[in-house]
Amino acid sequence: MLKWMRSGSPWIWLTAGTVSLSLLAVLGLLLMIGWKGLSYFWPAQVYRFDVSLADHQQVIVGEIYETKQVPRQQLLEAGYELAGNDNTTIARYLIKTGNRELADLDFVTLLDTQIRSKEVAHGVAVIDRLRNGKFYGYPQAVMVNGSSHSAALLPDWLSQAEAAKEAILELQQNQYIPLNRQLASLAASSDKTSESRRGELLARLREVEHELGQVRQVLDGQSLLMKDAEGREVQIPLADILDVWYPNDMSFSEKVAHWGRQLGHFVTDAPREANTEGGVFPAIFGTVLMVLLMSVIVTPLGVLAAIYLHEYAKQNRFTRLIRVAVINLAGVPSIVYGVFGLGFFVYMVGGTIDELFFSDQLPAPTFGTPGILWSALTLAILTLPVVIVSTEEGLARIPPAIRHGSLALGATQAETLWRIVIPMASPAIMTGLILAVARAAGEVAPLMLVGVVKMAPSLPIDAQFPYLHLDRKFMHLGYHIYDVGFQSPNVEAARPLVYATSLLLVTVIIGLNLTAIGIRNHLREKFRDLEQ
């Protein structure tokens, strides 16, 4: 036994077991996040409950969101009047009922003892809307300017409403907004040509507003008459309806198709209802763009610093002090970088840019306010030590004979670095970039100070010059998770979105890392023979 202990085998097995447990824990966490997040988009069955409460009878229609077994004694202590006093448990259901026009909350809690009957609610429709969340009820008729039409024609009316909404969006983006921007650009001019041009633009703007008014008038006269489980009627504007489905009457293939559509909407749509509904496309776009900008900034800075430290600087006490400082920078809390970015980049650099180039817009800041450029620079400083250390280690692994051979053939030191050393060290550079991307994509604390917001009115990239707007604020998946999970006004409704967004953030990080790993492996194979 002592000989076996001295051989080192126990430590090998201990290391292998620890690594295996870590991998299993990570895999289990990802599976849990994936299951809870992706199951949110599955069309769950809707039930009809006949409920007997203390002072009245009630009919409730909704989805069973959560079921828990609660000890009877705990319910008695909470004030519930229950027969018996033993150690048995009672099922408690959390039911999503929606219908915010008729109730204050999206959810109700029922005990099994309060439910007189429970059955699948056939024929019930689930309406996904722009406002007020989902509605559970029974379609009665389509109302068009006061006249009633059969609810069976609802898909056709929804198609017409969708076409009208697309026409409104096209008019706004392609004509209304550009005309307003042209008028704003002519506001400071007073010559006759500008006055004539302004008159033409105003006339065209009135025509576009008239077209928009006509289309909106048609939409405003269309609504869907719904009836809830207790017979109360509600009219829902067709312009607010995003989707209609009958979960209890769908086949398995229809449920799979619906699940795919809902998942697609989650990835491609903008958020709504204080981030508790809709999609996360602006957050995906902002996360990827910020990471790409950070990578473009941190890579040359880190590589140049590592080249200077390893190839040019003398190895003395001063350079050793610099290396210690670089290593220690990696341990500084990220919120400190956020404070530095706010003070230096936003207020000092951004304020100076505003005074020099945007003085006519002051006191309203252009670059002297948090934005995606300052966020990328802050995270570049945060991840710079990782790139420097990784690049310097890659430079140290290159045999000195390769440098000496290049210099002996007449190449200068700069040519040797550019044509031989840096290409051979590129796998190590990519390793540092992978680590930098993995950390930067998940950071939230510094971004809260230098650019990220709960809701961004527009993307940092659009069709208007200069196309890439580095001064704009942006949305981020990490901050979206924080906001939905801890700042949401409707925590229960937002909980599945936390899991779904977390899975999406992990997927984005893995995708970025796999891309960098693929490039690194290609470069490693390319220069393997030269290293040997």
From TrEMBL:
<keyword id="KW-1003">Cell membrane</keyword>
<keyword id="KW-0812">Transmembrane</keyword>
<dbReference type="InterPro" id="IPR000515">
    <property type="entry name" value="MetI-like"/>
</dbReference>
<comment type="similarity">
    <text>Belongs to the binding-protein-dependent transport system permease family. CysTW subfamily.</text>
</comment>
<feature type="transmembrane region" description="Helical">
    <location>
        <begin position="417"/>
        <end position="438"/>
    </location>
</feature>
<dbReference type="InterPro" id="IPR035906">
    <property type="entry name" value="MetI-like_sf"/>
</dbReference>
<keyword id="KW-0472">Membrane</keyword>
<feature type="transmembrane region" description="Helical">
    <location>
        <begin position="497"/>
        <end position="519"/>
    </location>
</feature>
<keyword id="KW-1133">Transmembrane helix</keyword>
<keyword id="KW-0813">Transport</keyword>
<feature type="transmembrane region" description="Helical">
    <location>
        <begin position="12"/>
        <end position="35"/>
    </location>
</feature>
<protein>
    <recommendedName>
        <fullName>Phosphate transport system permease protein PstA</fullName>
    </recommendedName>
</protein>
<feature type="transmembrane region" description="Helical">
    <location>
        <begin position="367"/>
        <end position="389"/>
    </location>
</feature>
<feature type="domain" description="ABC transmembrane type-1">
    <location>
        <begin position="284"/>
        <end position="516"/>
    </location>
</feature>
<feature type="transmembrane region" description="Helical">
    <location>
        <begin position="321"/>
        <end position="347"/>
    </location>
</feature>
<dbReference type="Pfam" id="PF00528">
    <property type="entry name" value="BPD_transp_1"/>
</dbReference>
<feature type="transmembrane region" description="Helical">
    <location>
        <begin position="280"/>
        <end position="309"/>
    </location>
</feature>
<dbReference type="InterPro" id="IPR005672">
    <property type="entry name" value="Phosphate_PstA"/>
</dbReference>
